[in-house]
Queue: 4 jobs
Job 1
Amino acid sequence: MKGSFSFLAMCFLLACSSGPSGQTPVDSTAAIDEEAIRDLMNRYVSGYESEDVETFVSVFAEDAVRMQPNGPAIVGSDQIRAYYENWFTESSLDVVVTPDQIELLGDRAVAWGTYTAKVTSKTDGTESQDRGKWINVFVKGTDGGWRFYRNIWNSDLPLSDDEP
């Protein structure tokens, strides 16, 4: 009788832990968070494409830090806004951002990937191409929404002869 009870208990536990059609349930919170981060990265790219400073700044936490190549860190949403208000008057950017991995760590997440970009000067029409890699740290706010917290990228292309 004891063996029958153990077998029945095990069957009950397996039935309760499986999803529809006997499938093991997926961590739906993780899937939702990963999709939200992918959507956030798409909004980031949309902010560049539309040259809409408010859309662009909205993806960043108030205390975000952007660490651009060959320049000082841009700290906080006010500095990010001021920098890109100026940048959007001088340049336009076509960029493709490809995430290779997103790792969720509670209310933080880390993602890395690659990018390709074309920057066009609005003053003389010159274009420059770039490709490289990036790493981002995201923070989940009290509203449940994700924002960029730390953002850094660098080029795979060699420096030109006139750069240090």
Job 2
Amino acid sequence: MKLQHHIITTLPMAAISFGLTRSWGGLIGIFIGGILIDIDHFIEFWHDQGSTINLKAFIQFGNSGLSTRLFILFHSFELIPLLLIGFILTNNQLFIGITLGLILHLFLDYANLVSRFGYRWYSIIVFSFIFRLCHQFQANRIIKVIK
């Protein structure tokens, strides 16, 4: 999903959340989970393009869907229970915000996979770190299963 779409959808969620809770931690967390988790795509970018920090090239690469690896460490369902445990242990709203933003982000990325790339409904499994690990993070192997 394109960065601007994540921004457009995250802003209202953050505004509503802040309006209801007045929590700066929750607000910041929603931005982290809704937008900033895409920073994990740099790992694939560097793997395929070399260790450059060219933001324009990074965004074009991310929008192309041509990565040879799918590390996407922060795009993982397995993080959700860990974030909730973090909230339970600390009562810090940041954890809830990140969780909400992450869920929104993954939903939007999933919708993009199905609508833009024609992946099957069960392609949501791509957001499992364990699934990607079992396929050695190789995009061609993962795509073969979910497309």
Job 3
Amino acid sequence: MCGLKYLPLIALIITRATTSPVPTHLFLLGGAMEDTTASIYNRMREATGLDSPNIAVAISAAPSLADGLDAYYTDNPGSVSYENLFKMYGFNPQVINLAIDNYAEASSADSVQGQMNIDIVKSADV
């Protein structure tokens, strides 16, 4: 059973080829995605051509940055954190600090947090 708190109904996951800055793969994941669906996570990793690709994890569906970071970093009984979930499948995860309550600042290229989020996305393979 999926233990992730803020799994969106549909998540778009785009990977880019290591030699191209343009996305070359698109993965659609439904809200009923299981934490243990190894074939999906393995396919995302394999599509990058890297053993341990960087993945940018958005917590934007969380009602607050604190809630999103809690789900990203904290394992709970019956559920694994986003960070550990992606590590378990061979990714180097980085969290995009963008939630409902800090949207204006965190999505602006003119803010420190916004620029940090942009840099995370630019460095991501997934």
Job 4
Amino acid sequence: MKCSLAMKSVGIVAVVALCLMGNALADTLIFDLSPTNGVTSRNADSGPGQGVIVGTTTTITSMAFFLDMPNGGDLNFMIWDATNSNLLFSTQLNNVTPSNNLDWVQSNPFSFTLQAGQEYWFGIMGDNSANIGYIFPPVPYSDNGLTADQSGNSNYDCSFNSPCFSGNGAAEIGLRLYSGGGGGVPEPASLFLLGSGLLGLGGLARKRTSK
């Protein structure tokens, strides 16, 4: 009987721990420039980008583009400055599954702070051909202090590992930005709550097994 109660208590501890950790690391979609109504087909080492004007300082933890890669491959997610002259951040997603159906493809977790009063350009490029969703004509969109640039998309080429800006287009590029726990590091308050819950339930388990 004591063992049974102990096992039940441990099970409760595990479930609560998982729930608390899940909440601590959960992604929140804060910017959703969609749905797209067109597709731009890009060769390897070429891709588009979308500008975002920042009204409120915000830390993002991942980004996503609406795309497919018919032959699979690797994707380079990029963040450029307002003039597209400086690549501020990039992260690669490797071994994307071949597909002929567009879907939202999200980057690996990261942490990047967008400063209020600045504009950033979010770009995507594959080491193989890719089809990427766009919106034309551009539409006004703003959420959570982030506003889509309606002046037209950016374009990048040169090479997958050393991309460069190559000019502007006329569309908006489908883009999602996430914030919250996507960076993979729980907030201190969430960690404290998790630890408190585990300690409390652990004590409950000891009390039950001692009876």
